[in-house]
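Long-time lurker. I teach an intro course on protein structure, and each term I like to show students one example going from raw sequence to a predicted 3D structure in token notation. This year I'd like something fresh instead of my usual example. Would anyone be willing to generate the tokens for the chain below so I can use it in lecture? Attribution to the forum is fine with me.
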Amino acid sequence: MTSGERDLPAEADALLTRLADGLGPAEAALALAILSNRTAARLHNLSRHESAARKEQPDWPAWAQLQNATRTMVLQASTCRDLAARLTAPKP
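-- Reply from a regular --
Happy to contribute to a lecture. Here you go:
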């Protein structure tokens, strides 16, 4: 089955709903922030690998741009994960 035959946004929404289902707001925030961080890291690794593999090819610029964008995404997602973790940390 190709991605054209799949409803990827609907699948993503279902996964997000399942991940956060039954959690309180702070726990849901942490779960979603962790997922965001891991997703950003995987996308960055994929784009970095493909960018390196496609040097001198016509689609290289798109992969390189995606790699650059995901680098920032990883940093922002890490910050979100760390801040969300504070929401669930025991209070002193």
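Some talking points for your students: The helical segments are 8-20, 25-53, 60-88. Residues 3-88 form one domain.
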